Each structure stands twice: as C-alpha cells, then as structure tokens.
C-alpha cells in the first residue's frame, strides 16, 4: 500500500520508544484518518517522502538531558515550517520541541505519574473548544518539565501542581501535550486528538477499507509483470484467506494457492478449509500433505521459539518446491509469495520503531516474519502488512469472504506445535489436544459466546496428574483451556466463563477424550494456569484460583469431585514443572483441610500455605524447575489478592520492665488458647505458638510475640484483626502483670538479659550468627518488625512489585523509624533495627541488586536462594544443624549432616524463611523494612504498601519515578536512612521530598480501591507533613520531659 495514494491526509508518528505509540496509530485510524509509524530517528528524507500533513512526536522513556536521547533529524523544523506541516509533541515529544526550538527543559520539582487533573488556562488552538477553567483527568508519565518556552509559544493548560500540561505556537503550527491523550486513562483524550486533527489541522478523514482494497490492487499490479505468477500460502486463517482473495481479485488465475497440511492442524481442519476455499471462495488451491516432513524435523524439539523457526524454514522449502513444479507446468517459475502478515506480527517480531535500538525483546518470531530464512528464494507480497486484525476483517467483508469464516478465531501459523508444550511427536499429544480443542470450541459455539471471544484453544501440558475415575486410580496427561478477548490483537484480556459452562465443558471433555486426566482453565491475563479439573466422576467443578508464571514454570492445582471422604484419608495430585515430562512431586493434604464433611462433596486441592512439616513428600528428586514452579504457584488473579500483616512486640513485666521468661510466655499462650479457642503449637512438650484458622501466634528468639495475620481483603479487616488480637493478648496478659511494647529495638536491656526461647532452630541460629556477622544476635533477641505480605498475578507483576518494594524500602524505614535507644541511651540511629541488618549475615540480607536485572524472574530468585547457606533440616520432629552448606548442596545429596538424603518442598519452604533481604519472595512478597510500633501504626504500614502496589496507576508511577535510580543510590539510601531518616540527602533535595510524592501515590491508590481506606495513612501523613519521624519524637521526649531516661518509653508505646 502506497501511503501517498490513500484518500486521506497522512498523520505520521515518529516513535521514540513509548509503550503507547501503537495506540496513537490505532486511535487516529479510528477517526478515519490514515496514520503510519516510523522510527523517530529516521532520516529526514524518509519523513518528507511520505508527505504527511501532520507529524506526531511520540513519548518515550528517555530524558532530553541524556547524551544518547533520540531526536528528530536536523532540518526537520525548517522542513515543517516551510511546508506548513502541523507538529504535535506528546510527553517526551513536547520536551523535544521545547528544547530543540530554544526553550528549557529541567528535571521536574514535582514529577507527575498516573492520573492527574489539568486545567485549561487559554481557550485557543488545541483547546479552542474548551472554556478557561475547564478541568479534565489525564494520564501523566514524566519526570522532566518545560521550564522556559521557546519564543512564540504559550501555555494553554497546566496541571493542578502548576506544571505545564499543554503548549502551542499557532503561527508555526507546533503543539505539545505533556500527557498521553491516546490512552483510555485520559477520558477526553480521543476527543482532543479528533479536535486537533480535524478542526485545528483540517485533516481529511478519508481512510476507508474500500480505498485500501483499490490501492492494494494497484500496488499488486504495479509490482507484478503481466505474465508473473504468484504463490499464496494459505493457512486456513482469516489473514491469509483475505490476502489470497485480494490478490486473486487483482490477478485472477495467475494466483496459485497452496495449503500445507503440516500435521499440526486442528481437528478436521484440512477438510473444512479446503471445502471453504473451493466452494465459497472459488480459489485455486493445491493441498500438500507434508505431515511427515514437519513432524520429522520437530522430533525432540521442545523450545517454542525453535519450533517456530523450524516450521518457517520448512514452509519455505515446500513453497520453493511448489514453485518448481509450477515452473515445469507454466514454463515460468513464480517469483512471489503472498502472506497474510499483519501489523501486529511485524511489531511483535521486530524492535519497536523509534526505540533507538537495533535489538529488543522479541515477543515471538512469527513464522511469516521473524521465522523466515535469510536465503528465501521467493519475494514477498504482504498486502495486509499495515493493517490490524479488525481492519482485515472489514476488508474481508468487502471482498465477500463468508462472514462465518471471517469470525474464525485466530490460529497460529506454527499450528499445534506451539499448543503442545514439549515434543509434539511424543506419544499421542497431538490427537489429545485436537479432540479437546474441538469439544471446547464446539461447546463455546453451542453456548452462543463464540463471537464474544477473540481466541479460544486447548494446550497440551507435558504433565501427568493423579486422579480417580470410578473405583480406579488414573495417571494421565493434562490440558489447559484458554480464552481471551481483544480488539486488535495487540492487547488481550481473559474471558470470564460462567461456572455452568465450565462444568459442562469439563464433563464433555472428560467423558469423550481418553488418555488424559485433567484439564485446566486459563483465566489470567498474559498467560498462566488455572485450577485443574480432575477426571474423577460424573460431574466437575472449577475453582478460580490462578497460578501464573513464565512458560515452563507453572504449577498445576487440582479440583476433585464426587469423592467418598470416609474411604480416603488424603488425596495426592502429582505435578511437575512444565518444562519436564515426568511426575515429580505429590502434594498431600488431609481431606479435613479441604472442606470434606459429607459423604460426597466437591473439594479443592491447593498448595499448603504454609505446609506443615510433613505436608509434602518427594516422589522423585526435586529439580530447579520444581523450585521455580513452587514460587510461581503463588500467582493469583487480582480479585483474589489479599493483605497479610505480621507484627512483633516485646513482652515485659510491668513492675520491673524485665522481659518475659519462657514460663510466663507459656502461661500466656495457654491462657489465650483456653479463653479464646486457639489451637496450641507444640515442640516436644513445650508450647511455642498458637493457631486459629489462618492466623498464628509465634515466638521469636528473645520471646518477642508475633501475630501472623490471616490474608484479608481490606485494610478495615486488617485493623479489626489487629485489634482483636491485642484485645485477647491484653485480656490475659494484664491479669499476669505483663505489658507489650511497640518499638523496633529493645531500649533498655542487653543481650545477656534476654531469655532464650526453647525452639530448636533458634539454638542452631544462635551458634551460627556470630560466625557471619557482628550484629546477628542483636537481630535475633532485640529487634521487632512489622511486615506486610502482598500477592502478585504473574511473574512480571511480581518483578514490578519486587523492584518497587526494594526501591522504596528506605522510605518505609524512615517513615516508621522507631528504635533510637540501646541499653538505656540514644544509639545514634533513628532505626537501630534497620542498622542491625547491615551486619547480620551478608549472604542472606540486603537490597538484592539482581532484582533490577532485565532477566530477573522466579528462576533468578531460585538461583540466589540455592546459594544462600542453610541453617537446618527438619527431620523426625528435630532440627538438624546444616549451617554453612547450601540448598544447592542439598539438591545434590551432599549434606554431611544427612548424607545422601535429598530435599522435599517443605525443606525448600523452610529454607526460604531463613533468607532476610529487605523484600523477600515466597509465594507472595514480604515488605520487611519497618520498625515495630504502637497499635495505631500497625495499620499504616499495610495501607502504605497496598496503596502503592495494589493499584496499577500508583505502581507504574513508582516504577517510573525510580527507574533511573542507580544501584549505588539505592544502596546509599539503605545505608544512610537508619541514621538520618527523612533528612537523608538524595539528589538535589532530601528523601523527605520523595516521601511526599510517594505518600500521595499511596493515598491515591487507596482511594481508587474504593474501600475508604486512605484514613489509615493519617499516622504517616503527619510524619511526612512535619518531616519528624517517630524516633525523633522519642529522642525529643528523652532529652526533655523524660529527663534522659528510657523507662517512660514502656508507657508511651504500651499496647
């Protein structure tokens, strides 16, 4: 397609690497205006040759102050001015305009990220349709700002913080928006684009599919000689069919279509599509059966990217052979190959335009783009290359392609090769996935929801699951069912099925397909694995618990039905990581924990959280993939995200201020158990904790009392739980003359004064700590922490939250700093608790700089944890000292303390609890950087992190804000904040100033949650307002009212 021939003025986007650039293209085409996107660093000749009426400079991740920041070519401004071209800069594009035309851009004093409100200050130009004072919500994402405008420019809108939001020079036709009008988070953005293009620029909105068809026919005929013949590769999908129909309309019988049966097609796909081609479309099609050729080349190949490359190469070999046959028949060899390549195919296979990079993370190699061999002999004709999927369907309708064919769900060119994880030639995987897919799709059609789904399909997993059918145990394969919605194939969301549909399709599959045990339903964005339905009876239910991770790292969860509970004590579900083909682990759970109460009852098998000491039994040696899968099993959909809070406190005798002895603690625990119906946790004959539902009370090494709260949905529930716990503890403790202190470090006593709790693991740790750090025993016996546990929906989500959490831990440490005393005197720190961790054990603590590597994910954390020295192994209800050896040694059977023995998953989970970075990964993320404090502060910490990490806008804003923080800066904050708190110098100001912005994002995030939770931030809001941390207030009291005594702190911070 020649852009200059389109009956619409061209809007050309120069892309500087923004993640939203393709949205600009889509939004403009939706206005019936033709738009194209090229690299922002393209030479001027590439821009001028397209003769655009409007040029849009996109946003991007760069700063104009960087030496390597991309820019439009020299001469661009003069060309635009001399030709009357309108120029609009968006975000980074605005800053380029300001800087290149003589203005000044500076680092923003108040960086703006996420939803912001702007106000129109001049009703002219791009806002001529608005009134002065009109406000609108927009999406901001910038750290720099326009400080001084070039001559001729004026401000037409500002943010409520006074930052320039829109500028224009109407005489020179240069305009700029500091926000992103193309995203849906800017509700009036589409109207702003329409007004600018149509009313301000006078663009002719003449972009129609009919014109596309006519223009493409001209291009095809101009490309081909009158006697040229063309091969068209038909896959049976919408794209290649529309492309073939278009070319056939242009050149008639000189088109020779070939449909290749590569052995990777869906159920009866060959017969069905050939009938459509011949009867409905009247296309000249030759069917080539190359099943053996493809499957032979794919034998033993498991990597999906390699599969795509192999398939692309084999297709071209077949097309070349087909061309040679035609040469013998026609006397002239076809020189061209038609393919249905789409714009999203190009984007996914190539570096993003304007990124300034010669490389990028390839989403996938398309068999008809990135998968083509370099020595291909046929030249390509790709008439749909600049169209999105919905536009192709519009074109197909004009070409009279049958509607039912146009509505077919997309099917990948590599076919079932990428829907069978692992070797496609092994066993009967292809037959199983074909049958399951056919039933799934037909069920969707029968339910009348086929057209509501963009793509639905089945995936075969190289996993075997244990199930029960009738009176027999089964051990067979697993398939996953996936369904997503989309508009243009660039972004997708999961389709939400009704439970009745899931029940019906599960029953149909299990009753009609042999040699597999389970199917799972994928209900998570971006990929992932949902609950498995086990083949275990005549009816089935599906639980909407999701686990998501990268391919090869998912873990299966099971659902069983119609089990006679009295006849079974436990159920095992075998699984392996998806990169393995053999069963590895069996998870074993008492039925009582699954809700089995009647004789026949549906129940859900899930991973224990956490498992008891003997909950997991290794059936074969663990692999690293199993460990990765364990972490990935924590993924869950946003609606299932919960908040877990843990807090520690010092118990003391009110009369003497001495710490509680174990005998007093035992009396307290027994009293709480008897009065409030908690279950006792014993080690030998000693009580060491309590459990009630998902809550637990445990003892830290120095007798610190810890509540590990249940996962709850809202902060109101969190605070209710805390209040209930404190009420119960106080009800028993006050009768004993015991009080509890909320502070981060023991303010009065030395280590020798602290009693040791009778827990085996603590004895091992106490002996080991002095060997690896000078402050380890202080950590064990004299610190108290508050931490928050939060969920993630995917590996990518985990990574983003992990990075945000690590970057902001110093701010949390400062806001909650509450440990300025040691042995009765100021210790020189605001958070002595935080300082203690700097010399506890460097092998297992710190800021984990590798989390910020591009390659970081579950696997990288596993690699780190494997090399962290172990403390112990728990066997036969005893802790065995394994200090100094790593879990990697354990995996190899090289632990001298238990020679030759291999670990199970419970060992892995225990090991993860002995790693102490600022943010810790289990099957959830733990934010660990806050001092213990009084009850009113216990709700503020979860509020702080929930507002930042559970709201997408705030989370992205934090990531954008901290993106350019260097590892050295992050470590500097970690090192200095324990001493200087919010007054720690950072860049051109203080950490205090950053905390102001962070707190606002946390508050905004809570407000968007809609639970009226922002009031829980009042405690830290006061800290941010004054810049005075809790520790500094205690020091002020110590030097004043308390007369340099720490004893009053036991009353000041008494629970």
Please characterize this protein's 3D structure:
It is globular, with a radius of gyration of 32 Å. With 1055 residues, it is of the alpha/beta class. Helix 6 crosses helix 12 (389-398), helix 21 crosses helix 28 (952-962) and helix 30 packs antiparallel against helix 31. The model is unreliable at 348-372 and 522-619 (pLDDT under 50). A 9-stranded mixed β-sheet has the order 2-1-3-4-9-8-7-5-6, sandwiched between helices. It contains 33 helices and 43 strands.
Write the layout of secondary structure elements.
Layout (H helix, E strand, L loop, with lengths): L9 E6 L5 H9 L4 E6 L4 H5 L5 E4 L18 H8 L2 E5 L1 H9 L3 E17 L14 E14 L5 E6 L4 E6 L4 E4 L11 H12 L8 H15 L6 E5 L3 H14 L3 E7 L7 H12 L4 E5 L1 H8 L5 H27 L5 E3 L4 H7 L29 E3 L7 H10 L4 H4 L22 H18 L8 E15 L2 E14 L7 E2 L4 H14 L3 E7 L6 E2 L1 E3 L11 E2 L10 E7 L5 E6 L9 E6 L9 E6 L10 E3 L5 H9 L10 E11 L8 H15 L2 E5 L2 E7 L2 E5 L5 E4 L6 H19 L4 E4 L18 H13 L3 H7 L2 E6 L4 H21 L5 E2 L2 E2 L5 H5 L8 E2 L11 H9 L5 E4 L2 E4 L5 H5 L13 H8 L3 E2 L1 E3 L3 E7 L3 H4 L1 H10 L2 H11 L4 H14 L4 E2 L2 E2 H19 L8 H9 L3 H10 L9 H4 L3
